[in-house]
Amino acid sequence: MELEQQFELPATPATAWPAFKDIALLVDCLPGASLTGPAVDGTWPLRFDVKLGPIAAAFAGSGRVQFDDAAQSGRFEGQAADKRTQSRVKGAAAFALAPGGTGTVVQVRVDYALTGSLAQFGRPGIVRELAGALTNQFADNLARRLTPLTAAADGTATATPPSENTAPARPLNAFGLIVQVLKTRWQHWTRWFRQRPPP
Predict the structure, then answer these.
(1) Contact at 8 Å (CB) between 60 and 44?
(2) Tens digit of pLDDT for each residue in 115-159?
(3) Where is 94: in which H helix or E strand?
(4) Burial track 24-40 (b if 16+ CB lie within 10 A, e otherwise)
(5) What pLDDT, in 10s, does the model give residues 10-52?
(6) Residues 58, 84: contact at Cβ < 8 Å?
(7) Domain assignment present for 198
(8) Residues 138, 30: Cα–Cα separation, whole Å
(9) Which domain holds residue 13?
(10) How many domains does the chain have?
């Protein structure tokens, strides 16, 4: 399945780009994700915890990242498996930064495959909206981490480099995201119903 996402950051590409090369920082900003150790020959050991109601999954795997400094773009490739549900995921994500408004526009294109018992939750419509909600959370977290860096670039604060954290992350509450998606859909349908012309 292919997904395309876009979000904006309140920092210039010159300020945001170093953050995208800080794997520990990016993982820390992604809900449910964590590093399980340092990189070995360019491969990062990763873990992604997700909870969907009574179902809990812990995907353990690894990934590699390639960067193009000139184009301020990169590509991540990885795979992981959850022993409890016998599910596996494999995919790649390409990202690129560009100036936009007063900050940076980030384009992300994801191509992944999910197999096993959790694949039953992979309906395209729901997955796309869940990906959008997860992207928004990631963008908000990253924007907060970039705030002191932006202030430092403006000469109004001193930037503090993030520390590498390999502690397990709080599981991603997929059920909560689904509720959020359904709530948004309901509000959209209600607004459309109220604004439609009378018969």
Answers:
(1) no
(2) 998 887 666 666 777 788 888 889 999 999 998 756 555 444 334
(3) strand 87-100
(4) bbbbbbbbbbbbeeeee
(5) 999 999 999 999 999 999 999 889 999 999 999 999 999 988 7
(6) yes
(7) no
(8) 5
(9) 2-193
(10) 1
